[in-house]
Amino acid sequence: MIPYGILLTLAFVVPLSRLAVHAWTYDLHSHILLVPFVSAFLLHDRRETLPSRGPSATRLAGVAAAIGMLALAVAWRTTLSHNDMLAAYACAYVCLLAAGGFHFFGAAWMKAAAFPAAFLFLLMPLPDAIVDVLERASMVASSEAAAMYFALAGTPLVREGTLFELPTITLQVARECSGIRSSWMLFITSLVASNMFLASPWRRVVLVLFVIPLGILRNGFRVFVLGMLCVHIGPHMIDTAIHHQGGPIFFALSLVPFLGMLWWLQRGDRRTYGR
What we know:
Order of helices and strands: HHHHHHHHEEEHHHH
Strand order of the largest sheet: 1-2-3
Number of helices: 12
Helix content: over 70%
Radius of gyration: 22 Å
């Protein structure tokens, strides 16, 4: 399997190099640089529970290879944006790598390593169409959350969609304020945490789904804080670091309820499984 993986990587070295540059350049896809290392860590962490190599799963290997070749054909023969073309190449690479896993290790081994193997699909940049939908949805949802915070604080405002007219300033929740990067990182974090620290399938699902309202409330809170600073300190707060570089701070704040939910779900796991 190792020689196969090396040869496959060499065959994809050009698109993978372009993917690395793309991930380094665009914040939304910066997680891609960490995906192989996280997947390798997860495999190493459960190495003692992985079964020995079994008979080759020829049919599953063939299905994975066929999907990989189809993704490769899409990357070659269709007119895609640079981002979407790299997503197709990444899909092809991971599928062909999975085909090698089914062929050399067998179905039982791949089933035991399903999460680390599936995690590699996060090498794919989010397609442009999906990013557009997520940004629009996040803008609307974040505006609703911010309006709720302003109402609770008793702050007078006139609102029209994503536009907020406050006493000293007018705020627009734009695409750049959608918080999609932080929400996507929180979603990926929830996937890893649920797999590592929870045993119950439904509790894993609960933790992953929990980050959706959490991300919306966090981003709405960021808009609310910025608006309150502009109202009570001055409109110049719109040009400060809390607006332009404040994302990591609010992401860190969102980890508090996230870790609280994880702790609560772990307690349920201990009662159910005695762990």
